[in-house]
Amino acid sequence: SIVAIHGVNGDRLSSWRGIGSSQPWLQHPDMLPRHFPDARILTYGYNATARGYRRPGTTMDDHAGNLITRLKDFRVNTQTPPARPIICLAHSTGGIILKSALILANKVDNYHKSHTEWFSKAIAGIIFLGTPHQEGIEAAKCFLKVHLVYGILNRAFTQNLQEYCETLPDQLSQSNSISHKYTTKLYYELCKTTFLDQSRLRLVPRWSAVVPGQVSVEPVGLYRNHLDLAKF
């Protein structure tokens, strides 16, 4: 299975759909289905809006737990073996949610062993697209700026995001301790994103997207801006 997780202001379909395309590239017959005909391609959707005033009502950790639960329910309903390999593809803050899910799945208490451990064992590979792995406060400032692309801020969401970004160093330490279990590729943007005020910025540069101290990791730069990293 290939599971895609979108980032800020995204959704499970449009985040993976390029300009002028009628469908996400994940499902385009000349893309993944052609090269991996037996793979089941899934997209995880969650409330990541930064527009308006509607309160999301859930935290990053909530999304991480929901990701595992919904995948487990899907596998039960489709009679899919729990051990079927999973490759996770995460863009932007979707990578933060994925790392939280992996940390959760690696906890050693009896509850997590019976409810979430299967997720960790099923992961065959991970692809991060512009995920801010370190320097949490600076990353939060960057993501607060990217919201200007979309208009009015959802203050509840951005406050939650900023508070969570400040915990990234701790999350980085925990994820480094389990990184040897997974083969990982880290993609980062080489082009700047243009904002409504015409300023330009690399939202997640190499120093934030590449994780020091992890094993089985390959960093790759792409000539795309942050928003287009997930679009082909």
Characterization of the model:
The protein has 232 residues and is of the alpha/beta class. It is 35% helix and 16% strand. The protein contains nine helices and eight strands. The chain has helices spanning 32-35, 60-77, 94-105, 110-115, 117-122, 136-146, 155-165, 168-176, 206-209, and strands at residues 2-5, 41-44, 86-91, 123-129, 184-189, 193-194, 200-201, 217-222. The strands form two sheets. It has a six-stranded parallel beta sheet. Strands 6-7 form a two-stranded antiparallel ribbon. A hairpin with a 5-residue loop joins strand 6 (193-194) and strand 7. Helix 3 (94-105) packs across helix 8 and helix 6 (136-146) packs antiparallel against helix 7 (155-165). It is globular. 36% of the residues are buried.
Compact description:
This protein has nine helices and eight strands. By secondary structure, it is an alpha/beta fold. It starts with a strand and ends in a 10-residue tail after the last strand.
